[in-house]
């Protein structure tokens, strides 16, 4: 970040797991007047940090919250008010285009998945790729030798 002209104004660590009150950390971040407050937490810790940040008005005062690890399901858990202005990145978004919507619809119909996250999409892609590789080398050959399967994939994509 510093190489791109940014400046780190501070950092803090919180006890993991089990921190439920992030107020003191957020007040400190707010007082720093940093343009971006990076949140290196995930799951319930992230949600427990973002909700009071919204209550304290960090984003209303011009600061941005940036989540390092976040899923669309976390945004839904937070609700629009708390998540407004939050910056996050995902490698997969269910409503990005026709292909992602079609994939998400298949998961919804076949597995009851409401909104697939990047983790579910990545797992699905990995398993599908593996099964195609098994089919390409013959199922019995794949069972007999995982090395042959890996060698086939290395050759096919190397």
Major sheet summary line: 3 strands, parallel
Morphology: elongated
Quaternary structure annotation? single chain
Q: Spatial order of the strands in the main sheet?
A: 1-2-3
Unreliable stretches (pLDDT < 50, length at least 5) are none
Taking all Cα atoms into account, the compactness measure Rg is 21 Å
**Beta-strand content estimate:** 5-15%
Tell me the number of helical segments per DSSP (H or I, 4 or more residues long).
8
Tally of distinct domains: 2
Could you explain the architecture of this structure?
The protein has 158 residues and is mostly helical. It has 2 domains: 2-87, Rossmann fold (3-Layer(aba) Sandwich); 98-157, no CATH class. It has 8 helices and 3 strands. It has helices at residues 23-32, 43-56, 72-78, 80-83, 98-111, 118-137, 139-144, 146-157; strands spanning 36-39, 64-67, 86-87. A 3-stranded parallel sheet has the order 1-2-3, covered by helices on one side. Strand 1 (36-39), helix 2 and strand 2 (64-67) form a beta-alpha-beta unit. It starts with 22 loop residues before the first helix and ends with a helix.
List keywords for this structure.
single chain; 158 residues; mainly alpha; Rossmann fold; 2 domains; 8 helices; 3 strands; 6% strand; elongated
